[in-house]
Design goal:
Elements: E1 4-8, E2 11-18, E3 24-29, H1 41-49, E4 52-57, E5 66-75, E6 78-81, H2 91-105, E7 110-115, H3 117-128, E8 133-139, H4 157-161, H5 172-185, H6 195-208, H7 214-224, E9 240-245, H8 254-262, E10 267-271, H9 283-294
Parallel strand pairs: 3-4, 3-7, 7-8, 8-9, 9-10
Antiparallel strand pairs: 1-2, 2-4, 2-5, 5-6
């Protein structure tokens, strides 16, 4: 898969596409500290087969998205170079990064599929730039603003702990194991982690950019500072599907009920046995729901 870049000021955002460029535009927004490769190729291809032109991307501070060095030739004002650390940065910059991807793809508007933290970013996009959002599918998300005290009651202990209890060494093998173990925390007993895929994805993610404990803190801080305009989520006019796993080990299903009630006309889909990530057996069910919601091209 060819990686392309969209430039937003000093940051080059890496993205990939699947499917027919003439299909309905669908942008995938992943969870916190998850590179785009954690959105499986097979899932992107399934969505493409439903008639979508699918794009996934790395948030700034993640994966192959990098800062731009002044004076380069590959982008206006600079060439992509690795300059860790990336932060701090603001929530509005994350929003602008998404708009840069849409602009580079030539999409005046798109359907958005947001997972976890990505569901929060999608809500803010729909509120701030309603003309750019055709529909929303929010998976495992909280009602924005994410820092609201009311959200605390929806969080399980595993979410608050954030990482496995064991310590990990600094070498590559240990850090890849940590990536796998963290992803395992989001799975359920009914749909356990696909071990072989997770190990391969962790190795690929490490190769693209080794993990840093500072990244999720910076990403969360950026989204936490975003405020919801007056009127709250009632200002979202895009057709919205709220999806949540009844066996989500991180965020209680009550969060989905609250989120769905806050967005006028939204549809709620609670899936038995599903954890905090979309498991392969449920891809067709969720894909068909997104397909129905999005309507014709």
């Amino acid at each position: 898969m060819t990686v392309s870049t969209a430039v937003n000021n000093e940051v080059a955002i890496a993205y990939e596409t699947f499917g027919d460029p003439g299909g309905r535009p669908l942008l995938l927004l992943n969870g916190i500290d998850l590179q785009m490769v954690w959105l499986p190729d097979d899932l992107c291809e399934l969505l493409a087969e439903l008639g979508f032109h699918v794009a996934r991307f790395d948030y700034r501070d993640s994966g192959l998205s990098v800062r731009v060095a002044p004076g380069g030739a590959d982008a206006p004002g600079g060439a992509p170079v690795q300059v860790p650390p990336e932060g701090p940065y603001r929530g509005e910059e994350l929003i602008a990064d998404v708009l840069a991807v849409l602009d580079t793809l030539g999409w005046s508007s798109a359907h958005l599929l947001g997972m976890s933290l990505g569901a929060g970013i999608a809500q803010h996009l729909a509120l701030r730039h309603p003309a750019r959002v055709r529909s929303l599918a929010l998976v495992g998300g909280l009602r924005m603003p994410i820092g609201a005290v009311a959200n605390l009651r929806h969080l399980r202990a595993r979410f608050l702990l954030g990482t496995p209890a064991r310590r990990y060494g600094p070498d590559r093998g240990e850090q890849e194991r940590r990536l796998v173990d963290v992803y395992r925390l989001a799975c359920s007993s009914a749909h356990p982690l696909e071990e072989e895929w997770a190990r391969a994805t962790a190795a690929l993610a490490y190769e693209r950019r080794p993990p840093s404990a500072a990244v999720p803190r910076r990403q969360l801080a950026a989204v936490r500072e975003l405020t919801v305009p007056a009127g709250g989520l009632a200002g979202i006019t895009a057709p919205t599907l709220v999806v949540h796993g009844e066996a989500d080990p991180l965020i209680r299903p009550s969060a989905a009920r609250v989120l769905s009630r806050a967005i006028p006309g939204s549809r709620l889909m609670l899936l038995p046995g599903m954890g905090h990530v979309l498991p392969r057996p449920l891809w067709p069910v969720v894909g068909e729901a997104i397909d129905r919601q999005s309507g014709p091209a």
